[in-house]
Amino acid sequence: MLRTLYNWTVSLARTRRALVALAIASFVESSFFPIPPDVLLIPMVIAAPQRAFLIAGICTVSSVVGGAFGYWIGVTVFDSLGMRILDFYNKSDLFEEFRKSFNEQGHWAVLFAGVTPFPYKVITITSGATGLPFAQFMFWSLVARGLRFFVVAALLWKVGEPIREFIEKRLGLMFTALVVLLIGGFFAVRSL
Hints:
Layout: H1 2-13, H2 18-31, H3 38-47, H4 52-88, H5 92-115, H6 120-130, H7 134-169, H8 171-190
C-alpha cells in the first residue's frame, strides 16, 4: 500500500496539475491541515529536477499565504471563541501574560516553526491570536518557509538520483521517520 501511494505521488508530480496540488497542500498545511507539503515537494523535485526552484517558490508563496490565513483564524476565531473559554476558566489574565511574552519573541517562534517539522499552523494561529504584528509575521514566515523549501529543493536538485534511490529502497523507513516527526511535533505543541 505504501509503495502504491508513493508511486501515485510520484506520478502526480509529473502531471500538469502537480503545481496546483502542491500550492493547495502548502496553503492548507500552514493554517489547519496536519500533513506537510514535503510529501509532494520531494517527489516533484525528484521527478522534475530542472523545475526544483519553481516548485520551491510555489511551495513557499502558497505556504506563506496559508500562514496569513492561519493568522486570520487566530484573530477571528480566538477572539470570538478562545477568549470565552479562557474567561470561563478564569485564565484570561494568563493569556495576557503569554501574549506579551510571545510578541516580544514571536519572530523566533515563527522562524523556528517555519523551518523545522514543528507544526507551523500552531504558530500562524498563535501569532494572530496574540496580535504579533502582521508585517513582522509575514516577513519571518517568508524567510523561514523560503529557507526550508529552497534548501530541500536545492539538495534534491544537486543530489537528485541517489536521493530518489535512497527513498525508494527505504520507503518504509522514510514513512516511519515522517510519522515520528509529525507525532513528535504534535507532542511538542502539547507540552508548550
